[in-house]
Specification:
This protein is of the alpha+beta class and about 475 residues long. The protein has 3 domains: about 30-185, TIM Barrel, CATH 3.20.20.70; about 260-360, Sandwich (Immunoglobulin-like), CATH 2.60.40.10; about 365-475, Immunoglobulin-like, CATH 2.60.40. The chain is built from 6 helices and 31 strands.
Length: about 475
Amino acid sequence: MYRTGIAVLLFSSVLCAQEYWKPNPKTTWQWQLQGAIDLSVNAEVFDIDLFDNTPATVAAIHAKGSKAICYFSAGSFEDWRPDAGRFPDSVKGRNLDGWPGERWLDIRRIDILGPIMESRIQLCKEKGFDAVEPDNIDAYVNNSGFPLTGAEQAEFNRYLAAAAHKRGLSIALKNDLDQVSTLLPYFDFALNESCLEYDECDRLLPFVQAGKAVFHVEYEMAASSFCPTTNALGFNSLQKNWELDAFRVACTGNESAAEGPELLAVVSASTLTGGGVVAGQLVLLYGRDIGPYWMTRPEGVPTAEAIGDTSVTFSGRTGLLLAASRHQLTAIVPGDVGRLRNLDIAVKNGDAVTETLRVKVLEANPGLFTLNGTGTGQATAQNEDGLLNDTLTPAVRGSAILLTATGIGSNHARVWIGGVEAEVIAVGPGPENLPGVVQIQVRVPAEIEGGAKVPVVIESLGVRSASSVTLAVAP
C-alpha cells in the first residue's frame, strides 16, 4: 500500500453546476392532483397533473414566485387520458389494484412507450413546467403481468430522466426505493409515499446526503406523529388524504417532539444504505438530538469511545466514534459482533438514552466510497502515480489502482472493472489507518475498454456492491 491523503475526500461532496432548476433540499411544497388548484397555499413548489391543468395555471404558480412539477403516469395506462389511443394492447398488463381503468405497462417496450412518454414530457415543457414527476416507475416489484427485472426498470427510468433533462426539466424518482443507489445520479430529487408507515425512510437518505430534496407524504398518520422524525431526516413532509386534493398539513420544522434523543436509522458510511451492518464497518447513525449541536470530532485522536457526552453501544459493546452532531454520528461497529444475528444499538447523549434500534448482523455488506459521498458515481480511488482517479487523470490499463471501501467481511474481496475480474494485489488498512475502512489494491485489466465511467464492483463473501460506481480508465 502507498500513503495517500485521500482520507479527507471520503466525506466530501462534489458541487456540480446546475443546467436547470432543481429544488433545494429544504423546500416547501404542495401536491394536488384533484380539483381546482388552490393557489392560496403558501408553498415554493406545486406538483400538479399534466393533463388537468393549463399553461395559465402554471403561469399563475410562477407569478407567485413558485415552481411547478408536472405529474403523469409513466408506468401505467390510464383509459381516461387524451392520448390513451396511442397505447397498443400488447403493452397493457394487469390492472392496478384499487385504481379502475388503470393497467401496468410493459416498460421493456421503450420502442413503443418511449415516443409516448417523450410527447408527455414535451407537453410538460410547452405548458411551462419546471420539473416532472413520472409515477408508477416500479412495475418490476409489482404484479404487472410481465416478467420484468430490476435492470429493465432501471433502463426505462434512466430513459425518462434523459428525456426530461434534454428538455431542461428536472425529474423526481417516485418511490422505487430498491433502486435508489443505482438511479441517484440520474434523478434530481425524490418523492415518496408512506415510507414511515412501511419503515423504509432510511433508504431515501442517499438523496439527503447528496444534497437533493426528498418530498414525502403520509396518508394514514397525523403530521404531529411523524413530523419530528422526518424533520430530523431532512425530508419535506406532508400529511395528505388519498384523494390528493387541496388538503395539506405541512411539517414546518417547529413541531414539538417527544423529549429525549431518538435513533432513526443506521446505514453504511459508503453507500448510505441500510439492511444490516458488518463487524468493523464504518456506519452513519441518523437521529434526533443524538449528539452535540455542531459537528464535533475527537481531540487529538481519530476515534474515541465518547465525544463530549455522546456515546453509542452495539448490544452493550461501546463503539468508537469519529464524529458526532445533533442529527448524525459516524461510528465503527465493534469487531467482535460477527457471531451475533442482530445488534441492539443505542445512543447516549448526556443523561438521556435512545430506545434501541435493532439491525441485522451481516457477514459482508461491501460498499465503495465515492467522491460525491453517496456510494454512486466516481469512486474515491488513487492511481498508481499517486493522483486521484478522475476524468482528467484516468487510470492506465494494466496499472495498479487503490480503491477505498467498508463492509468487507474478513478482509476478503474480489473486484470487477469493466465487467472483467481484476487481480487483487492486496487488501489492507484504510488511508492513514482510518478505522472502519479498507483499501483494496487491484490491477486494472488490460483487456477492458477505457472510458470516463467504467463500472467497478467489489464482492466479499459472495455479496456484491452496487453497480453504480465508476472509474476513469484511459483509452
